[in-house]
Each structure stands twice: as structure tokens, then as C-alpha cells.
Amino acid sequence: MTVEAFAPAKVNLTLHVTGQRPDGYHTLDSLVIFVDAGDRLSFDAAETLSLTVTGPRADGVPGDARNLVWKAADLLGPGRGAAIVLEKHLPAAAGIGGGSSDAAAALRGLARLWEVDLPEAAELLALGADVPACLKPRPLRMQGVGETILPGPEMPAMALVLINPGVEVSTPAVFKALDRKDNPAMPTPPGWASAAVMAHWLGRQRNDLEPPALAQAPVIGAVLAALDDTPGCLLARMSGSGATCFGIYETNEDATAATDALRRARPDWWVQAAVPVSM
Ligand SMILES: C[C@](O)(CO)[C@H](O)COP(=O)(O)OP(=O)(O)OC[C@H]1O[C@@H](n2ccc(N)nc2=O)[C@H](O)[C@@H]1O
Ligand SMILES: Nc1ncnc2c1ncn2[C@@H]1O[C@H](COP(=O)(O)OP(=O)(O)OP(=O)(O)O)[C@@H](O)[C@H]1O
Hints:
Residues 200-265 form the GHMP kinase C-terminal domain. With 279 residues, the chain is of the alpha+beta class.
């Protein structure tokens, strides 16, 4: 029996950095959604663990114990076997949780293959701060350093465009370069009647990692400007620690038209239209 799992991209609609713990990790308050762009994984029964990385974004992604998928398998079933194929579609080190979402999808898939229970959120932090959030992809509010997952509001109909300019941004370096660590938390997301009302609310919130990421990768400014310039773009913002940015649109038509235009203008950028998913 082949088990399959989808690893959707994570988008931080907001990302407020509210403090720093004595161990150096930062406390966050972030509204997170998942979208239908992502990686695909398959799992077959096998004596030993193996991982094959394929797909359009496989280049540079390790196919061994350095991969978060491998680490997830080791955490869930130490010493157990499975033949895993990871089809990469998401850019790596991009702020959209590629590795974390792959790890979470591996946990979901292998838990079915091996008929074992999923670990608790706190245990998953060892794999990455985004892994607890990625375990059950749906709109959520992430707090603590990533271990506290609260249900998010119901999202209005919307479409997104994701752009990655091909520059890898180091997450630790971006956190380190933050000017202030004790920024105000996010108000409770109220739920919204439309994408436009939501975008207006989001516009008054922040991604505190945007300024330090921009200093490290100035091209992020060009990406945000390019999104802002497309017809129907309600809000443009960076996700996670960058460099991927997203634009929010009312309709799929607007997002698809923006994607076509941006791909023509910047064939060197990864440009992807997407809609939110809950799994
Ligand atoms: C920026 C976010 O993507 C927001 O969703 C995440 O907080 C980062 O999640 P991630 O990439 O899974 O992060 P990890 O691999 O656990 O951590 C990478 C590095 O980022 C910094 N880090 C991460 C999460 C956090 N709450 N505080 C931090 O300071 C630490 O220096 C850590 O060594
Ligand atoms: N399954 C995987 N997919 C991509 N990269 C992986 C994976 N496993 C390990 N890595 C390594 O982890 C690094 C970070 O990649 P990842 O896609 O997790 O990005 P990220 O920017 O940390 O995501 P985010 O900040 O949103 O959590 C890469 O440089 C890569 O070498």
C-alpha cells in the first residue's frame, strides 16, 4: 500500500515578534494559513529507511539524514523502515516552511503507514519551530516559539500570488538582526466578511522580520513593489523570514492575471498563484 501526503506552503499573514527567551528563541504571534501550492510525498513499506528527492525544486535539497523528512521519520519510529519519495515544488529556505511542512507531512503519512500515534506539539519543536503549525494545516494563530497553536478565524474567499526571487535568506541571521525583540502582540483576528476587509486589517499588522530580511536581501523590496503594482492586489507582505512574499487578491482571476504578468516580466522569479487550503 502506498500512502501519499501533501505538504502545503505555509504563509505568515502576520508575524509579530513579541520577545526573546533566555535560550535565544523568539516568542511570536502570527496568523498562519496554508495554500494549495506545495510538495508531494509518498511512503511505501520497506525494511530500511530511504529517501528519494525528485521534482522541479529538488536541486540542493539533501536526500539523507539532513533532510527534515528523514529526521521526522527518526523521531516517529526510530529504526523503522520506509521508502519515501519527496517531490519538491517549493523553493527551499524561503520562509514558506518547505522543510517544516515536508516534516509534518512525513509524520502524517508515516503515522498511517506504521499505524502509530502522532507526537505532541512540544516534541515536534525539535524538528523546527514551524512543524507543530504544519501538522494540521488550516488557518491558525501561532504563539510561543511555535508550540502554541490556536484556531484561526474563518477566512474569506481570497487568492494569493507567491513570489520567491531565488535568494535564500538565513532564518537565524534575520532573527539576530532584529532591532527590537519586544514588539506589540497581534490583536485577536476578528474574522472578516471579504478579502478586502481582511487586507485592511492585516495592513495595520506587521511582519517584524521584514526590515531585517530586506536589509539582507534588498530584492525583497522589488518583489513587494512588483506585487503592489498588479491590478487587484489588496496587500503585499513577506512571509516568515523571507524572501518569499505574497500578494492577496479578491478573486482567482486577479491572482492568475497577476501571475501571468509577473512571470513574463520576471522569468527568473518563482511566481505561483494559490488559494488557502485546510486539511
Ligand atoms: C520565522 C518562522 O518561519 C515563522 O513561522 C519560524 O519561526 C521559523 O521556523 P523554522 O524555520 O522551522 O525555524 P527553526 O529551524 O526551528 O529555527 C531556525 C532558527 O531561527 C531562530 N528562531 C526560530 C524560531 C523562533 N521562534 N525564534 C527564533 O529565534 C533561531 O535562531 C533558530 O535557530
Ligand atoms: N525537506 C526539505 N526541503 C527543503 N529544505 C530542506 C529539507 N530538509 C532539510 N532542508 C534544509 O533546510 C534548509 C531550510 O529550508 P526550509 O525550506 O525548511 O526553509 P525555511 O526558510 O526555514 O522555512 P521557514 O522559515 O518558513 O520555516 C534548506 O537550506 C535545506 O538545506
